[in-house]
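User: Second chain of the day. Same drill as before.
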Amino acid sequence: MNQRVLIISYYWPPSGGAGVQRYLKFSKYLPGFDVEPFVLTVQNPTYPIRDATLAGEIPEDVQVFRSKTIEPFSLYARLRGLNDEEIKPTVELKGHHPLSRIGSWIRANLFIPDARAGWYLTAKRKAVELIRKFDIDTVITTGPPHSVHLIGRQVKREQGISWIADFRDPWSTIYYNQILPRTGFANKVDRRFEKSVLREADRIIVVTPVQADELRAIEERAYHVITNGFDPADFDNIDTAPPEAPPMLIRHIGSVGEASIPETFLNVLKKISGSADLQMEFIGHVHQRLPERVVELGIQDLIRFREYLPHNEAIEEMCRSHLLLLIIPDVGDIRHHIPGKLFEYIATGQPVLLLRPPSAKGGDSEKILSEENAGFVCQMDDPGAIENALVRIYQSVTTGHSTPGRNRPASDPGHRYSRIRLTRTLAAIISELNPHS
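Assistant: Same format as last time:
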């Protein structure tokens, strides 16, 4: 190998969810581009989602190291009488339990930039140890949690090593900071941390073009866009044929927070269910208000809720759907937001229905869906547009006619959203930083 890189990531198997897969896949394919990855992660994490099957995807030759952290979510769980995995931070930001409100204020104002900051000291020491032991050329930090970038900043200051900061989501402008009860002082401190990282990192990678524009407004510099994607290998040996319709099976895979509850969509489903044979499934953690609303509308027979599935099973359920639902949360300007599952949705070849708030009009998710000819985009509060899209897809599915998204790019490792091609781009950035390694 010509290059050695240390990836510092809080999320790593057995963590589940989209965030962990970005660098799990990069570490899988980097050796093919002459980059040897080492991984530093947390020894005692609290993960909102666990997926033990992802551990089987860690390449045998990738060395993984761990260090302890101080976890406020563990204390919060004990106060609630819950297990760590029963606490879902993104779902509970505006929970109704009194401790949820108190916990949100403490998390927003005492843990800056985030509640994972307790990992900073042990991770920094371990990173320095690994850099010296393995003669590592480059450090990559990936956030959220963005406190991880402060580890990279300090390691660079002390060791003079090349440092790449990877932003999977925005920092100070991330949508849940608009929900948390933050004080002006906390926001000021957070922005100061953010700006220092943007100034000091040798390279900044972001996952969307709009995100690059937003960060450029904070700190003018070059930003590299490497989106998330799909791994063609995930689709090997999967039965990709959806069941015979009707009913037309609609699925949403992943979490649904309060700002993503598709109120208008639910009303439209109720309206057309008398003339169209439909079945809707939400697979993953959902805000409690969603099933409550389903009961209030009297559509329990139409909508089913299922727990989080391991990634390989989720991929199969995506493939065996007639329509895949994607929801952009209604939280201010969120044009940058591209849910990680969008790329796997596209890879299945099944049509996608994207529901977006007015603030996401013309955003990155909408552009990708349009460029890939992979489905339909509707404003989430527009019942007429949603009904027209559902009726059109229903007619196509039940008559066997083609609909957008039938090209199945999962079979193409050279596709622009293939993890293999995306890893080549990352390897080029790493090599550029250390051309003589």
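Residues 86-94 have pLDDT under 50 and may be disordered.

User: Great, on to the next one.
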